[in-house]
Amino acid sequence: MIRLLNLELQKLLLNRTSKILIFISFILPFLVILLSSIKFNVFGLFTLELGELGVFNFPVIWHLTTFFASQFKFFFAIVVVSMIGNEYSNKTIKQNLIDGLSKKEFILSKFYAIVFFSLVSTIIIGFISLCIGLYYSSYNEFNIIIRETSFLVAYFVKLVGFFSLCLFFGMLAKRSAFALAFIFILFIMEWIGFGLITWKFNADIAEKIQNFFPLKSMYKLIDQPLQRIAMSKFPEKEQLLYDYGVHTYEILIVLVWTMLFILLSYRLLKKRDL
User: Fold this and answer.
1) Over the stretch 163-184, which tens digit does the pLDDT of each residue have?
2) How far apart are the first and last CA of the chain?
3) Sign of torsion, CA 233 234 235 240?
4) What is the CA radius of gyration of the chain?
5) Taking a C-beta distance cutoff of 8 angstroms, is the pair 179, 172 a contact?
6) Residue 166 is part of which domain span?
7) Which residues cross the membrane (predicted)?
8) pLDDT digits (tens, 9 = 90+) for 60-113
9) Cβ proximity of 110 and 167 under 8 Å
10) d(Cα 166, Cα 183) in Å, to the nearest integer?
11) What per-residue confidence (pLDDT) applies to 53?
12) Residue 52 CA from chain centroid, whole number
C-alpha cells in the first residue's frame, strides 16, 4: 500500500497544476477561521460578530465546519480526474503496466491517494473546528466537545465517495473536461429521476428513493446546518424541526457506491485495450 501511495504522490507532486490545486483544496477550509473572525458593521449602529452568536459552540461547530468545507471538494475533484486524464494523454498508464504494475495495483494506487488526501483534509477540518470551538464555545466539557464528531466521519466518507465517483468518470471518459461534464449530467439525471418518480407516485416516496442516488446520498451525509442554527434561536418554531444527524445507514449507502465505483473503474481498465 505504501509503495503504491508513494508512486501516486510522486506523480501528483511533479505536476505543477496538481500541486496548485491540492494546495488550494487544503487552504480553502481555513476560510472558516476567517469567517469566524469577521465582524459586520450594521449601519453604524452595532457590530455583529458570528462567533459571538453561538454558531461556533460545541457540538454544532462540527456540523457547521464539515458542511461548508465539503463545498470545496470540487477543487480536488479536478485533481482526481486530471490524474487519470494525464495518465492517458502522457501514455504513463501504458508505461506503468509495462514496468510491472498490474491493473489492479494501478487502480488501488489512485484509491489510496484518494483516501490519503481525504484523511488529511478531515484532520485539518477537525483541527480547525476544535480550535474555533475552544475559542468561541460556551461549553468546554469533554463529553460535549466530542459529541457529534461523527460529522468528521461523515465528511471523510463523503470525500472518499465523491472522489471515487470522479475516478470512475475519469476512467470512463479519459479526459478531465468530459469527466467533470459527466458529474454534471449525473446531477441532472438524478433530479429528472426525482421528478419522474414524484409524478408517478408522490414527493415523499421520490425523496426516499432519491436518497439512494450517488450524489444525493453523498449530500445527505451532512445536511445543511443553517436550519439547525435557526432552531436553536427559535425553539418554539416547530416547523424548523428536521433530522440533521449522521446515520449509519447513510454512511453504508455511500460506502457501497464507493466500492462499486472502484470495482467499475478496475473493470473498465481490465477490459480496455491500452
Assistant:
1) 999 999 988 887 777 888 999 9
2) 24
3) negative
4) 21
5) yes
6) 2-271
7) 20-40, 60-84, 111-137, 149-170, 177-199, 251-269
8) 889 988 998 888 888 788 888 887 877 777 777 777 776 777 888 889 989 999
9) yes
10) 8
11) 64
12) 28
* pLDDT the model gives residue 100: 74
CA trace torsion 211, 71, 106, 7 (10° rounding): -150
Task: Give me the mean pLDDT over the 111-132 stretch.
Answer: 91
Q: For residue 164, which of 270, 69, 259 has the smallest C-alpha distance?
A: 259
Q: 119, 163 in Cβ contact below 8 A?
A: no
DSSP per-residue string spanning 94-152: HHHHHTT--HHHHHHHHHHHHHHHHHHHHHHHHHHHHHHHHHH-S---HHHHSTTTHHH
Burial of 178 (0-12, 13-18, 19+ CB in 10 A): middle
Question: Strand, helix or coil at 242?
Answer: coil
Calpha distance 131→103 (Å, rounded): 43
